[in-house]
Amino acid sequence: MTSSFRPDFGLTAQDYGRHRAGFPPQLVSYLYRHGIAFPGKDVLDVGTGTGALARLSALAGARVTGLDPAGPLLEQARELDREAGVEADYRVGTAEATGLPDASYDVVTAGQCWHWFDAPKAGAEVRRVLRPGGRVVIAHFDWLPLPDNVVEATEELIRSFNPAWTLGGGTGLYPRWLTDLATSGFTGIETFSFDLEVPYPPGAWRGRIRASAGVGASLPPDEVERFDEALGRLLRDRFPGEVVHVPHRTWAVVATRPQG
Asked: According to its UniProt record, which protein family does this protein belong to (predicted)?
């Protein structure tokens, strides 16, 4: 990422583990249609965070290694894996320098994190650890700011507390990642997307936003508390009710490490 904005998600590990919605299970079916099956495969999930994508791969039958620079997030990942009845090998490390052997994985996944990486270094490292013919998946599961919806209002509030945060206004589509993969020598590049709504009770939405890059991962604790109170007021005033329905888009790009 070229921005100097560098959140530390370890600061918000509990909220991150509790409130950030994982990737929808339908993602596995879409990946299967694109030639990526998980049973018996060796999968590396870089930037794993609390293991949302790693856990999905493990539930689908893969042997999974999860890598992240934030140790507190990996502790949350292990706890969530225990609750889900699966297990992955979580290690502290980075996508740019995994420290893992050459050609040791069938699939490398990166969920909700490629924008934090040095893309040329991460692309080269992913290619190095993949077996010939192995597949890479960069996936996102993003809320969608639409006119007058809860996401747009929430993003406006984040910007008022944290002007350095520039990740709002997204469409859930990432065409630059295609160029990153092509530049790193990957072939057979394809994309897909699908939309769905995620229901959040107001308290859970507040927790989800505390766990975001622009709030709990970058603001001082007292500012996080002030923001959370302001978001609570916003929800009560503009979006009352027991649940807010938050539109999301799942998007992924898949590509292949050439043989030889």
From this structure: Belongs to the methyltransferase superfamily.
